[in-house]
Design goal:
- By secondary structure, this protein is α+β, with helices and mostly antiparallel strands.
- It has one domain: Gcn5-related N-acetyltransferase (GNAT) (Aminopeptidase, 3-Layer(aba) Sandwich).
- It is about 20% helix and about 25% strand.
- The chain has 3 helices and 7 strands.
- The chain is globular.
- It binds coenzyme A.
- Coenzyme A binds next to strand 4, helix 2 and helix 3.
């Protein structure tokens, strides 16, 4: 992940990372900043949720973006369930990896870094997790203004009639090539 000014790597969060400079530009995104500063390392160390940070300089260890992943499950309606699964009608809940948080610094938004991190996440879940532990879907509770970003990456909205501030979305990893 590189640009003319930066040479980024995505790596696990670690003690000493500079988490306080991430700027997302909107007040509604403050919880994403607070999570990174206060909870992400603790959750990471205790296997609750794993955070990977975008860093371009290991001396300053300034974090420019991050993704947080955890195990999860989704309940799909009959039309959304994988049809090829034996006795699938008996199952409502399916195993998933959840994108619990995803954020890119406002100065870097719109330059493809979110897409790169999403593709990295899909590859991790599909190639490193699914073959060893049953895991069929990638899920996210999207923010209203990030729905189009996830749709471009192939995610679908759950069919929900109730307007949801954080609409759940899913991607079937089995059909991602
Ligand atoms: C949402 C977010 C992660 C996207 O990351 P990004 O680096 O800005 O997005 P990218 O530049 O990789 O965009 C990838 C594609 O999605 C599109 N896209 C990105 N954000 C979009 C938006 N809000 N609406 C519509 N399309 C969007 C881009 O145009 C691009 O399309 P293309 O591939 O056809 O060129 C980032 O903007 C962000 O951190 N936002 C604030 C926090 C947030 O909303 N997080 C998501 C929580 S669920």
């Amino acid at each position: 992940m590189s640009s003319t000014q930066h040479n980024f790597q995505l790596r696990p969060i670690q003690a000493g990372d500079n988490l306080s400079k991430l700027s997302l530009g909107k007040e509604s995104h403050t919880p994403l900043k607070i999570f990174l500063r206060k909870a992400a390392l603790n959750f990471h160390q205790h296997n609750i949720a794993k955070t990977y940070v975008l860093v371009d300089d290991e001396v300053s260890a300034r974090v420019w973006g991050y993704v947080t992943l955890m195990s999860s499950e989704i309940i799909l309606n009959e039309n959304q369930r994988p049809q090829e699964i034996y006795a699938s009608s008996r199952y409502e809940a399916f195993p998933a990896v959840k994108i619990a948080r995803l954020a890119i610094d406002k100065t870097l938004q719109g330059q493809g870094y979110g897409k790169d991190i999403l593709e990295w996440t899909v590859t991790l879940a599909r190639d490193k997790i699914s073959p060893h532990i049953g895991c069929r879907f990638l899920v996210v509770d999207a923010k209203q203004d990030s729905i189009a970003f996830y749709e471009k990456a192939g995610f679908s909205l759950f069919s929900t009639e109730v307007p949801d501030e954080h609409p759940p979305m899913f991607l079937d990893l089995y059909h991602v090539t």
